[in-house]
Amino acid sequence: MRRPFFVGLGGLSSKLYRFQSVINPHDPAFTQLPGINNSGTIAGYFGGGRIVPNHGFTLVLPNTFTPENFPGAVQTQVIGINATATPLGSGLMESGLTMASRTLVGRS
User: Fold this and answer.
1) For the residues 98-103, what does the mean pLDDT come to?
2) What are the boundaries of each domain within the chain?
């Protein structure tokens, strides 16, 4: 059983943090979670890129995964999310061209 712990710095108030493992059911071997906004929505992607292609998602804990993929891309990495829950990331096209985007407009 995992136990929460407290982190405190000098006269600052301590906050309770809990760590939780997250595994995307589409690839239990590889899940990255590089971004989170103040509302707690998490940005991430699964797939290591070689055997399983990268596919982006947003996540609301405990397990509400929403696919977020760059339109027409064979791989997508969602690496951030803003305050309005708009995912940020990039997509790799079949031609090898990387499509960088501040937002995944028209995402699927």
Assistant:
1) 63
2) 23-101
* Pair type for strands 5-7 and 64-67: unpaired
Note whether 86 and 41 are within 8 A (CB): no
Torsion of CA 58, 47, 98, 73, to 10 degrees: -70
pLDDT digits (tens, 9 = 90+) for 29-45: 999 999 999 999 999 99
**What does the block give as tokens for 83?**
């305050």
- Tell me how far apart the alpha carbons of residues 12 and 67 are, in angstroms, rounded to a whole number: 38
Q: What count of residues does the chain have? A: 108
CA angle, 20 then 82 then 54, to 5°: 60
Greatest extent of the chain over all pairs of C-alpha atoms, in Å: 55
9: helix, strand or coil: coil
Given the structure tokens 């309770």, which residue do they identify? 16
Which pLDDT belongs to residue 81?
93
